[in-house]
Amino acid sequence: MVTTFQPSTVLALGTLRAVHHIAFNVKDMQASRHFYGTFLGLHELTGDEVPTTLKDLVAEGKVANFVTPDGVVIDLFWEPELAPPNLDPHQQFTRANHLAFDVAPEAFDQVVEVLQHSQVTIDHGPVTRPTGRGIYFYDPDGFLLEVRCDP
Questions:
Q1: What is the DSSP letter of 28?
Q2: Which DSSP symbol is given to 13?
Q3: Which pLDDT belongs to residue 137?
Q4: Is residue 33 within 8 Å of 76, Cβ to Cβ?
Q5: pLDDT exceeds cutoff 70 at 111
Q6: What's the distance, Cα to Cα, between the start and end of the chain in Å?
Q7: pTM above 0.85?
Q8: How many CB atoms are closer than 10 A to CB 78?
Q9: Domains of the chain in sequence order
Q10: Nearest of 70, 79, 69 to residue 23 by alpha carbon
Q11: Residue 82 · residue 25 · CB < 8 Å
Q12: What are the E-state strand segments in 103-140?
């Protein structure tokens, strides 16, 4: 079934500016840190580079953050009880936590309004943190997405 959205319940082309970050659930944090940092050669955020909201989780070894050369952040969330990958390759997206899109701060409230008045299922939010504001919702296949803005 295809859902038809009314013009007042869709985001204008260009509202989403870029991918801000993507978060993956990982079973083995050390192996994943090695893969993203050593094998792929991505810069791991440490010290003052770690977002304030994640400092405790990073210190506890529950989260690691990497940045791509174009500035996209990859967050790794340690989930030691994570089930093995699904044998059906069409189900592999379940390994990821969420995909976040960045919007201008002045567009955030309009995005929230569109989401709240659409048929999109909202997981939680909007939330306000020192690192910005965000709202979490699901795509038609149940993949968690976030729209966020800087403070």
A1: -
A2: T
A3: 87
A4: yes
A5: yes
A6: 38
A7: no
A8: 19
A9: 1-12+103-151 (3.10.180.10), 18-97 (3.10.180.10)
A10: 79
A11: yes
A12: 122-129, 132-138
